């Protein structure tokens, strides 16, 4: 056999045999053509989770400040559900994300009111707060991830969890906030305060829509300042914000402190939902009349109610106050008839949920049983619609 012939045989075996086998395999099993340089479009997962008409139990999540909890899924999952015999039992169905104070670049800022020890945040600080609120894997992302994980295990939520976002107070008298459309704002002018608030609402909406959440929905906004300074024109400002949110089909929420200006006129101010703070928990010298008076005020003016506790709940005297709220709310029909917001300081519910202390476990079970039962009632009301 000549050397040239051997080369022809070698070339056939090395090149044409794989090609021939490839054609046979392709014809027999089917080939999928791909256009050069064109990527396949990712499949969009459609999740059909209904929406509730209102929030039953609203957890206040203080999120943003450097001194706060990270609010990752490992922490927030304890607000979303509790594990009962290997299955999730649903808890809070609403989450209010807000921040009051934070240290930013070495300076302390207050997003609610001006004070002698804090600076007034400007546009850069408002942007900073947005970036912290919507940080990857934190806050709303963490709730979404928790619900997605449960759904993949066969436990989808019966309805979407609702999220409320706080609007920083464009504080009257400030002139150094920044510019919109190349025009510096002056918060001595009512129209500029409104412009800043609307700017923040738009920024939240843009970020929210980019997230494409499946299991949570933006239900509304929250006015951070806990009273109405009529002398500064706050009553007009919140009314204009309320009118705008109504056209967007979003709720406007407020939680005034006990004795706040115009709390009894919350509907005239264009708020859709107002929760009354009793302000009883925070001092062991506060008489029971503070709690009952706050609840009665809320009921008189058709407000919802706020339950209040913080990490001091592990102390005996404050623990008693925790149970006082539960009992008074029971006696006055709050658990049966009202929406409830929960102030837990900076993660006191998380502390109770993971505690090995028998007394704290008892507290977590007591309140958890109430919230879980209220959630079941909300699910039942959806079925009756």
Taking the sheet with the most strands, its summary is: 8 strands, parallel, barrel
- What is the overall shape? globular
Portion in strands: 15-25%
For this structure, the quaternary state is: single chain
| Helix/strand order | HEHEEEEEHHEEEHEHEEHEHHEHH
Average pLDDT, to the nearest integer? Answer: 90
Query: Ranges with pLDDT <50 over ≥5 residues?
Result: 1-38
Count of distinct strands: 14
Helix vs. strand class: alpha/beta
Rg computed from alpha carbons, rounded to a whole number of angstroms: 28 Å
Question: Topology, pairings included?
Answer:
Elements: H1 3-29, E1 57-62, H2 73-80, E2 81-84, E3 87-90, E4 94-98, E5 101-104, E6 107-110, H3 123-133, H4 140-152, E7 161-167, E8 179-180, E9 183-184, H5 190-211, E10 216-223, H6 234-247, E11 251-254, E12 273-276, H7 288-300, E13 304-308, H8 316-331, H9 334-337, E14 340-343, H10 348-354, H11 358-383
């Amino acid at each position: 056999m000549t050397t040239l012939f051997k080369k022809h045989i070698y070339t056939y075996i090395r090149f044409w045999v794989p090609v021939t086998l490839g054609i046979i395999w392709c014809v027999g099993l089917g080939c999928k053509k791909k256009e050069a340089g064109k990527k396949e479009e990712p499949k969009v997962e459609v999740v059909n989770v209904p929406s509730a008409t209102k929030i039953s139990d609203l957890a206040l999540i203080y999120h943003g400040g450097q001194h706060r909890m990270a609010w990752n899924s490992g922490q927030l999952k304890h607000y979303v559900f509790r594990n009962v015999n290997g299955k999730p039992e649903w808890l809070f169905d609403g989450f209010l994300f807000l921040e009051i104070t934070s240290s930013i670049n070495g300076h302390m800022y207050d997003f609610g009111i001006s004070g002698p020890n804090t600076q007034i945040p400007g546009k850069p600080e408002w942007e900073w707060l947005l970036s912290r609120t919507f940080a990857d894997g934190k806050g709303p992302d963490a709730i979404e991830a928790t619900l997605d994980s449960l759904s993949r295990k066969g436990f989808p939520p019966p309805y979407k969890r609702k999220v409320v976002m706080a609007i920083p107070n464009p504080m009257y008298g400030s002139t150094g906030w920044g510019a919109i459309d190349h025009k510096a704002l002056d918060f001595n002018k009512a129209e500029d305060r409104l412009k800043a608030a609307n700017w923040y609402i738009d920024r939240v909406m843009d970020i929210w829509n980019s997230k494409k959440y499946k299991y949570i929905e933006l239900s509304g906004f929250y006015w951070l300042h806990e009273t109405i300074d009529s002398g500064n024109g706050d009553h007009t400002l919140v009314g204009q914000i309320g009118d705008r949110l109504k056209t967007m089909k979003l709720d406007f929420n407020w939680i005034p402190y006990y004795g706040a200006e115009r709390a009894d006129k919350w509907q005239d101010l264009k708020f859709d939902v107002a929760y009354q703070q009793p302000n009883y928990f925070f001092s062991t010298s506060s008489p029971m009349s503070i709690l009952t008076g706050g609840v009665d005020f809320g009921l008189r003016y058709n407000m919802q109610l706020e339950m209040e506790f913080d990490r001091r709940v592990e102390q005996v005297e404050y623990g008693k106050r925790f149970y006082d709220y539960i009992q008074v709310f029971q006696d006055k029909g709050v658990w049966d008839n009202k929406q409830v917001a929960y102030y837990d300081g900076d993660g006191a519910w998380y502390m109770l949920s993971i505690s090995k202390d028998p007394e704290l476990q008892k507290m977590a079970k007591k309140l958890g049983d109430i919230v879980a039962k209220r959630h079941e009632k909300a699910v039942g009301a959806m079925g009756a619609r």
